[in-house]
Amino acid sequence: TWDRVPRRAPCMEPASPSACVSASLSLCCEWLRCCGGGEPRPRTVWLGHPEKRDQRYPRNVINNQKYNFFTFLPGVLFNQFKYFFNLYFLLLACSQFVPEMRLGALYTYWVPLGFVLAVTVIREAVEEIRCYVRDREVNCQVYSRLTARGQPPLFLFITQNQRVPADMIFLRTSEKNGSCFLRTDQLDGETDWKLRLPVACTQRLPTAADLLQIRSYVYAEEPNIDIHNFVGTFTREDSDPPISESLSIENTLWAGTVIASGTVVGVVLYSGRELRSVMNTSNPRSKIGLFDLEVNCLTKILFGALVVVSLVMVALQHFAGRWYLQIIRFLLLFSNIIPISLRVNLDMGKIVYSWVIRRDSKIPGTVVRSSTIPEQLGRISYLLTDKTGTLTQNEMVFKRLHLGTVAYGLDSMDEVQSHIFSIYTQVKPSSCGTITTTPKSFKGPTLTTKVRRTMSSRVHEAVKAIALCHNVTPVYESNGVTDQAEAEKQYEDSCRVYQASSPDEVALVQWTESVGLTLVGRDQSSMQLRTPGDQILNFTILQIFPFTYESKRMGIIVRDESTGEITFYMKGADVVMAGIVQYNDWLEEECGNMAREGLRVLVVAKKSLAEEQYQDFEARYVQAKLSVHDRSLKVATVIESLEMEMELLCLTGVEDQLQADVRPTLETLRNAGIKVWMLTGDKLETATCTAKNAHLVTRNQDIHVFRLVTNRSEAHLELNAFRRKHDCALVISGDSLEVCLKYYEYEFMELACQCPAVVCCRCTPTQKAQIVRLLQERTGKLTCAVGDGGNDVSMIQESDCGVGVEGKEGKQASLAADFSITQFKHLGRLLMVHGRNSYKRSAALSQFVIHRSLCISTMQAVFSSVFYFASVPLYQGFLIIGYSTIYTMFPVFSLVLDKDVKSEVAMLYPELYKDLLKGRPLSYKTFLIWVLISIYQGSTIMYGALLLFESEFVHIVAISFTSLILTELLMVALTIQTWHWLMTVAELLSLACYIASLVFLHEFIDVYFIATLSFLWKVSVITLVSCLPLYVLKYLRRRFSPPSYSKLTS
To answer: Per the database record, which ranges form the P-type ATPase C-terminal domain (predicted)?
Structure first.
C-alpha cells in the first residue's frame, strides 16, 4: 500500500529532482484513488506526462475482515437468524405482542433472546476489531518513493529483504550486473530464487532521478491470475527514434515477493484487487461449523416434536372451540422443548475454548482468529499442508558426498578438508606466476601413500567441480568495519554473502568453502576460487547451460587460466545423468539409498575438451542460436553432442531442513486417522524428497509418480495404470492434475482419496483451493489447510478449518487463517488435545442443555394432561427464567471444563481422536438416549409431586421445582468425568442461590411448607427415584462395556 497524494499537490521543495528520492512514503492505511467497477482492461501507464494523470488504482490494502461498518450489524443478525432456532425464538417473542397468545410477561421471552444476540454481537465485534488491528499493522509499512511536482507517486524504491507492495515493472537496480533476485515462495511456493531484469533503457540512465525527466509509457495486459506470464511493452518517446522494448515476466515485480539482492526502482502497474496475488485468493467468508449444523438439525427435530405434542393436546380436546388458537398457545407453552439458552451456552463455550488455546504454554504464540469453529478441530479427516516454510525451513544443508567407493557424511567432512589441504600444500606459485607442483621428497613411496594421493585427487576433482558448476554470485556488503569496496577488493569473508536462484546451489558453494575451496568472485565471464593456501585460481566462463524443468540438469564450460585446460562440468538429476556418464555399477543403487533418506541427489560429472574440440562446438552452438526455425531443438542437439561418456565424479546429497518435530507430528496425525496431502508450488523432485524426508510417505510404501499428461487419452491410460497400484502414495504435478480434473474428476478423486498420502507439486494457489473444495464435495469430510505464505490464503479460506503458520516470510497466511500457530509441530496438540476437548465438551453441553429443557417440557405436558389438557403454564415469571439461568446455568456451563483423559494421554494415544471422526459424541443415538432420560426424569418428578402433594396446588410447584433443580445438579455431577474445582464451586453456588431465593419466591412457593420435614422427605424420594437408576446404569456400563478412553484414565 502507499499514500494517497492529492492530484495536484506539489511535493516538498527540493533543490533538484534527486532530492525527492528520499521522500518517505507512509502506508498507514492510506490508499491510492479508488477505481470504478467493470471488466479488467489493458492499460497504459504514462510516465513524464503531467497532462495524462488519469490512472486510477484500487485501494491497495490487505483486508481479512468479514464485515465493514455498514454491513456489520445486518450481517451478524442475518448469520444468527439463518439458524432455525434463533428465527423460531424471534417469532415466538414477537407473538407475545398479540393478547390472545400471551402466556406471561414479555421479559420472559425478550430478555433471553436479547441476551443471546448481545453476546453474539459483542463476540463478533471483538473479532472484527482484532482483525482490523492486525490488518492495519501489515498495511502500515513504509516505503520510499520518487516523485516530482504534479506527478502521481508511481515510482517506488524497494530495498533488499523488503516485500514488494504492488505489482510493478522493474526499471532500475543498484546491482552491478544489472539484475536482481526475487524470493517468490510466498507467491508460488517455489524455493528457487527468480532472476529479474530491469527495462534496458531505464537501467542505462545515469541516476534514478532521471526517470522523472523522460517521457515514456508502459502498455500492459489486463489484470489476470497468471503469475507465471506477462505481456507488455515499454516505449520511450523522447528519443530519436522512439525506443520500444517488449516486457515479459522477467521484467515484473509481483506483490508479495521479496527483493533478495540490491535496491530496485519500479513503476506501479496493478494494485488492490487487481494484484496477481489477490486475484489468486478468495474473499474471506463466515464459516459455519459442522457441529453447529448438526445442532441446528436436532432443533428442527425438536420443533417437529413440539408441533406433534401440541396437535396431540388439541386432538385430545376433540378440536373444540377456537382450536387453532389453542394450537398456537400450546406451541408457546411447550416452547421450552427448543432451548433458547442452547446458542448462548455454545457461543460462550467457544469463547472459553479459544481462551484455553491461547493460554496453553505448550503451544506458545497460538492465536484464535475465528472463535466460531473450535469444534471443527476435533473432526478433521484431511489435512492439506504447504511445504516451503510449513514443513521445511527452506534452509539447505549439505549432508553427503559419495565417490562410489567411499562416502563422506557430516561427521567425516574433516577428512575431505584434509584431502583438499594436502593437494594445495603440494603446489606453490612459481616466479612467472604459474602454478607448479613441488612433490614431497620421499624414497620409495609406500602403497598407503599412493592410495592416499589417489583419494585426495578424486576428492579434489569432485570438490572443484561443485565449486565451479553453479550460478552462484558472491556479493560483498559493508559490515560496519570494512566498507563494501574494500571488502570486495580483499575478498573479506565476513562481508561475503552468496546469491543464487536456488538455495541448493548456495548450500553446495557454502560447503566447498567449509572444506577449503572458496568462491570469492564472479561476473559474467570469469570466476575466482581461493585455495586453503590463500592462492586465487582464475577461471574463464566460456559457456553456461542453465537448469530447466525439462532438462533437469545444468552445465558450464570453463578454462583454467593457469593451465589453459578447458573442462565441461555438468550436474543434474540421476534419471537424466545416468545416460550421460560412463558406465558404472553403483550410481543407481546409491542414488536410491540417498533418496530414501530424503536427500536431494545431484550427479556431478566432467569432460575435458581439447581447444579444437571446443572451437568446433562453439561454432555449431552459435550457428544453432542464430537459427530462426526450431531454435531450441537445434541448440539442445548441439549441447547433447558434448553430453556423452562424461566422467562420473560424485553424488551430492542436500537436505532441506525440516521444521522442528515435523516427523513425529505427521506420525501422530496419521495414527489419528487423518490423511495428509502436501500441496506445493515447488518442483516434483523437491516435493518428493521432502515427502520422504518428513516421513509423509513411509519407508514401506511405494510412490506412484503420475506422469505428465496433456490430453484425455493420456489421462485415461495413466489413471488405469494408477488404479492397479495398492497402498501407494501419489505424486502428481499441477498440469496433470488439471487435465485429470477436467475429464475424469470423479474417478481421480475416488482413487486419490484411497491413497495413504498425496503430493501435488507445481500447484497454483487457485488449484490448491480447488483441491480442498473437491475433497469437501466428494467425501463430505472436514478438511484442514495449513500454510505460511500468501499463496496458501485461498486454500486456508476454502477449507473447513484454516491454520496459518506465522513464519519468517510474513503474516499474510496467519492473518487470513482461523487459527495461527508459530510452528507446524503445534498442530498436533491443537487437534489432538484442544480440538478433541472442544468437540466432546460442546457435544456434552448441547445435549445437557436440551435435556434440561426437555425435562421441564415433559413436566408441563404431564401437568396439562392431568388437568384436562389446559394450556396453563406450570411455572411462571421468574421461576421459568431462573431455572435456565442462575439455578442451573453455572453447573451446566462448567461442562466446558470437563475432560475424559489428560492432555498427555491424548497426545500419546492419537487413536482416541479417530473415534471422534464418526461423530459419535453427538449423534442421533446419543440424542435419543438423552430424550428418553428427559422423559423419564420429567415424568417421575411430575407424577411424584402429584402423588405426594397434600392439599394446595402451590405445594405441587414447590415439590416439583425443587426436585427438578436437585435432579439437574445431580445429573451434572453424573455427567462430569474429571472434576475441576470450579465445577464444585458452580454446584454449591447454584444450590445456595436457589435456597437463598426461596425467601423472595413467596408468590410461587409456600415458604412455610418448604421448612417442614414432609417437604424434605418428599423431595428426597422423588429426586432419588429420578437419578438413582441412571447412576446404576452408568456404573454397570463402565464395569462391563467401558469406553476406550476409560482404560487410559488410570
So the answer is: 815-1042
792 is in an annotated binding site: yes
Strands 435-437 and 427-429: antiparallel
Write down the pLDDT at residue 433: 37
Tell me the C-alpha distance between 121 and 123, whole Å.
Answer: 5
Query: What cell does 567 get?
Result: 573442462
DSSP structure string for 336-353: GGS-THHHHHHHHHHHHH
Contacting residues for 82 by C-beta, under 8 A, at least 6 apart: none
* 505 has binding-site annotation: yes
Say if CB 880 and CB 109 are below 8 A apart. no
Give every strand in the sheet of 24-25, ordered side by side: 24-25, 143-146, 155-158, 264-270, 167-173, 252-253
When pLDDT is cut at 50, 70 and 90, the band that residue 512 belongs to is very high
Annotated ligand binding at 768? The verdict is: yes
**Residue 386 a catalytic site member:** yes
Question: At residue 795, what is the residue type?
Answer: M
Can you give the pLDDT at residue 583? 87
Average pLDDT, integer, range 782-793: 88
Report the alpha-carbon distance of residue 259 to residue 159 in Å, rounded.
7
Q: How confident is the model at residue 749, as a pLDDT?
A: 92
Quote the cell numbers at residue 874.
Answer: 406450570
Residue 372 labelled as part of a binding site = no
Q: Which of 886, 639, 839 is nearest to 112 (CA)?
A: 886
Q: Is 712 a known ligand-binding residue?
A: no
Q: Is pLDDT above 90 for 509? A: yes
| pLDDT given at position 355 | 93
**HSE toward the beta carbon, residue 348, CA cutoff 13 A:** 20
- In order, the DSSP letters of 425-456 are TSEEE-TTS-EEE-PPP-SS--HHHHHHHHHH
404: Cβ contacts below 8 Å, ≥ 6 apart = 584, 586, 590, 648, 650
Give the range among 265-279, 770-784, 963-977 with minimum mean pLDDT: 265-279
Query: What is the C-alpha to C-alpha distance for residues 1033 and 315, in angstroms, rounded to an integer?
Result: 37
pLDDT of residue 50: 67
Nearest CA to 83 out of 339, 284, 286, 300 is that of 300
User: Among 167, 268, 155, which Cα is nearest to 207's?
Assistant: 155
682 is in an annotated binding site: yes
426 grid coordinates: 603440494
Q: Residue 774 half-sphere exposure, CB side, CA atoms within 13 Å?
A: 21
Most confidently predicted of 9-13, 237-241, 721-725, 761-765: 721-725
- Rounded mean pLDDT of the chain? 83
**Is 788 marked within a binding site?**
yes
Catalytically annotated residue among 386, 574, 818, 898: 386
